[in-house]
Predict the structure of Putative transcriptional regulator.
Amino acid sequence: MNPLSDSDLAAAELVIGALDSRLRLQIIQRLSEREHFVHELVAGLGKSQPLISQHLRVLKRSGIVNSERRGREVIYRLVAPAAADLILAAIALHRNAPTEEAAATIINLPRGTEPEGDAGAGQIAHAPAAALSGEPTLDPIPDPAPTPPTPQSFS
């Protein structure tokens, strides 16, 4: 991969940041099917109008959606279908990522090769118990930047 320019990185950061919300992902999913009035998104997603509008502003600022006023209402459409593809790629990446359990090495120690008194020989070494729990075991790396304000629900 060629080095990316600062402007390319800033564009990627803007788009990826806009996708950093489950509600915005749901909005993109709906807009990938057809354009929607704000009130349709409010009813379909079960969230308040101010919350939906706030998320739509983020998506619009990133260039993923645009809007058009129709009388007293505003209709939104997906103008970057690649955003929906990016969501599907993220899902595929997650599904295909090796789990700690799958990545753990299983060692089968053959019997008869153990030193005298080594009672554990011949046993299979397994992944740590934490990997078998099904819970994510990755420790998140803290972001050194201040935490941005999160959208608040008014419902």
Remarks:
- Residues 33 and 78 are 9 Å apart (CA to CA).
